[in-house]
């Protein structure tokens, strides 16, 4: 009699009942839902902060590029005048094919191309400082060297919309006349084709940074349209000097 009672007792403790399993699953679902509610937005905020920080570090590269005329095709086009280059880039940045792209890529130390930038390194090269150097870079999509750089891209790639700022009252606003450079005090005449006659010593402009969803050249050279992007990850007001 004692033996049968012991067996029945052990059998009753061998597993969980259906009610217990359902209760446990319910508690687990509530915990997961609460976790996602708390940490989901936090994860998105962290991701956005990291993207913004990365793009912000590349801002100095953009400013430097607008003050530099590179050897080769740029020097021939702009006659060595960086102000003319800046006007051209600002006016045309929202045109398909002339988008301003900003990124970092792996370059081979000591191997320079005709515009003074490093040859892109094969991504199989592993040792930084010896096999490759990470170079910040800004090019327009129409630059033939951009496709070469893509093979050594490091990290995320951004594109930038550059829009002139003009005076309105006591402040500045983004010019509605895209594709042109106007007198910021009296908007109207287009100086994009004649930067020498631009009446001011500086051009104030807004730079809107966007993250590219993919870096395949087939996408960028065909279906990519900067006007389809309306939510920048961040923006800055900058100035380029004559």
Notes on the structure:
The protein is an alpha+beta fold. It contains 7 helices and 7 strands, in the order αααααβββαβββαβ. It has helices at about 1-10, 20-55, 60-65, 75-80, 80-90, 145-150, 215-220, and strands at about 100-110, 120, 135-140, 160-170, 170-175, 200-210, 235-240. Strands 1, 2, 3, 4, 5, 6 and 7 form a 7-stranded antiparallel β-sheet that branches. It is flat. About 20% of the residues are buried. The model has no long low-confidence stretch (mean pLDDT about 85).
What's a concise summary of this model?
The protein is α+β, with helices and mostly antiparallel strands and 242 residues long. It contains 7 helices and 7 strands.
Question: What tags apply to this protein structure?
Answer:
single chain; alpha+beta; 7-stranded antiparallel β-sheet; 36% helix; flat
What is the SS-derived class?
alpha+beta
User: Strand share of the residues?
Assistant: 15-25%
Unreliable sequence segments:
none
Report the major sheet: 7 strands, antiparallel
* Overall pLDDT metric: 83
Counting DSSP E segments of at least 2 residues, the number of strands comes to 7
Order of helices and strands: HHHHHEEEHEEEHE
How large is the count of helical segments? 7
Fraction of residues in H or I helices: 25-40%
Q: Write down the overall geometry.
A: flat
Q: What would you report as the Rg, rounded to the nearest angstrom?
A: 28 Å
Q: First CA to last CA: what distance?
A: 104 Å
